[in-house]
Amino acid sequence: MNGDAVDTDTRRRNPRPDRRRDGRRDGRVDVLIVGAGPTGLALGIDLARRGVDALLLERGETLAPGSRGKGLQPRTLEVYEDFGVVDEVLAAGGPYPVSVVWTDGRRTGEHRIFDPVEDGGEISRFTVPWMVPQWRNQEILRARLEELGGTVAFGREVAGIGQDEDGVTARLASGEEIRARYAVAADGGRSTVRRALGIAMSGETVDPYPLLVADVRIPGLGRDRWHVFPPSGQGAGYASICPLPGTEDFQLVAQLSGRTDIDLSPDGVRKAVAERTHLSPADVTEVRWSSEFRPRAALADRFREGRVFLAGDAAHVHSPAGGQGLNTSVQDAYNLGWKLGAVLSGRAPQALLDTYEEERRPVAEHVLGLSTAIHRNQARRGAGTRQLGLHYRESSLSEETRPAPGALRAGDRVPDLTVDGVRLFDRLRGPDWTLLTLDDGVFLVRPDGYVGWAGPSVDGSDAYRARVGA
């Protein structure tokens, strides 16, 4: 139990010394993480700071390119502050710009992507979503992982996976096998691991038309606005061109209305811009990355099979509307990391791991519904998209023993209050449980910042502590 403030700078200067750079000990890892996107990297960081031997496998030769999921919600920024990377993330990005709507080459309106939100009692240092290209987000997370002694093994594709009572065996495309006590599939919406486990994914198509997504350079276009081009009525779908902070790039999203083929070549990207905007192909001086995306909402039937867990897009796939997918994925990792650490250290029983699916699958289902509603213009980008109000009140890990609970209850995220001149988040920072005494009770706060147990005094908390390894 840690009730003292943590010196973040000291933690960053002194990563745990007992971890080897390849993540292995005696030829075996504690946790094998498949996929080095934001989900896998976040989980790797959380495990590394707990001294857990974890190895990240990435089938690509580098981190994935492209701006992709560029929006970080306030709750994710709080997670990043705990990880010790928020200053770099804030410096690398910027707030969302106002959108300007273009019609026939004329500006015809402006609006904000996210609605202004009143505090509502959530109280956070971070009040607005922050835009950071995903490739830069990943670079920052990887650097922190390596600072803590973790590593990513590139060019390592998992072809199959098996398990027994003692562990998991991953078979690589090269023929090599890696043994681990647990494995986590963070390998995206087309997850090889999920398919190998036979876990189905149920969902729906959110939009019948595919999207072309690209990072482009358009020197003549203003960078102070997010440029939106509604469908022209000439058979072309909409387009949006968003300036990416910290770069000279824009993210282009072009809907391919009435078409199923996508030309991802530089000429194809330039043609998509010219068909939907007042810009000419020559205005696009560089195409730095391009991809296709087919908006759908899907949820894995279960998030666990034995010793293997699903996290991120391997477990839930979102429309990009509202900026929810990457954020929900990082918080999957934040939920699972402390639980794996507690079980692997022997402080908590294996039953603790059952609560990962219990807590995260309902959240993912809720957020999927929100993303889909925003995509279909049935909901606004408001307080719900910030993810500060998500809670685990119904979880079996949330024990409320006070006869008259106050505003802060078991299962709630602890707000970023300042009490007697001390910021609570300074007390909570780090991988441990924290005991807080506030005006309306005593709270055992989980390593992920949610209240686990609440009572009128500390009496009666012993059984709970033994159950969760606090």
What CATH architecture of the largest domain would you give?
3-Layer(bba) Sandwich
N/C terminus separation: 6 Å
Overall 3D shape: globular
The helix/strand class is alpha+beta
Largest sheet: 8 strands, mixed
Helix content: 25-40%
CATH topology of the largest domain: FAD/NAD(P)-binding domain
**CATH domain class name of the largest domain:** Alpha Beta
With helices defined by DSSP (H or I, 4 residues minimum), what is the helix count?
12
Number of strands: 27
| Poorly predicted regions | 1-23
Integer-rounded radius of gyration: 23 Å
Beta-strand share of residues:
25-35%
Mean pLDDT: 90
| CATH superfamily placement of the largest domain | FAD/NAD(P)-binding domain
Supply the number of structural domains: 3
What topology does this entry show?
Blueprint: H1 8-13, E1 29-34, H2 38-48, E2 54-58, E3 71-72, H3 74-83, H4 86-92, E4 94-95, E5 99-103, E6 106-111, E7 130-131, H5 134-147, E8 152-154, E9 158-163, E10 168-172, E11 177-185, H6 192-197, E12 201-205, E13 211-217, E14 226-229, E15 239-243, E16 250-255, H7 266-276, E17 286-293, E18 296-300, E19 304-305, E20 308-310, E21 316-317, H8 325-344, H9 354-375, H10 383-386, E22 399-400, E23 418-419, E24 422-423, H11 424-428, E25 434-438, E26 441-445, E27 451-455, H12 462-468
Parallel strand pairs: 1-2, 1-11, 2-8, 5-14, 11-20, 22-27
Antiparallel strand pairs: 3-7, 4-7, 5-6, 9-10, 10-11, 12-18, 13-16, 13-17, 14-15, 15-16, 18-21, 19-20, 23-24, 25-26, 26-27
Helix pairs in contact: 2-5, 2-8, 8-9
